[in-house]
Design a protein that fits this description.
Blueprint lengths: L1 E3 L2 E3 L1 H19 L16 H15 L23 H12 L6
Antiparallel strand pairs: 1-2
Length: 101
């Protein structure tokens, strides 16, 4: 906590202010928004979730990777209606990464 003019500012208040400022800045430069689809919102597809999660954890923690391969993204493919977009939105939200559609 920080003391400012005899008022205590909590870390939650600071985080909230930073999030509001980041949203405002992101909107002003036209950055894509991370959708609010949660990991739990994706029903089934547990095997797909596991593969994506493990892949992203390795790529987000390069020191722990056993491979020198660099990846710049994930491509989901399949017929219409199989959950590709929902999965991509959930992944973006879960791992706080950019979602491009």
């Amino acid at each position: 906590a920080i003391l400012a003019d005899s008022e205590i500012i909590t870390s939650d208040q600071i985080k909230s202010s930073v999030e509001k400022r980041n949203k405002s800045f992101s909107t002003s430069i036209g950055a894509p928004k991370i959708p609010t689809v949660k990991w739990e919102d994706v029903g089934g597809l547990e095997d797909v979730k596991k593969v994506i999660s493990e892949s992203l954890k390795l790529n987000l923690n390069p020191g722990k990777s056993k491979s020198n391969l660099k990846r710049s993204g994930i491509v989901l493919y399949g017929p219409p209606g199989c959950g590709k977009t929902l999965m991509a939105k959930a992944v973006a939200n879960q791992f706080n990464i950019t979602f491009l559609s």
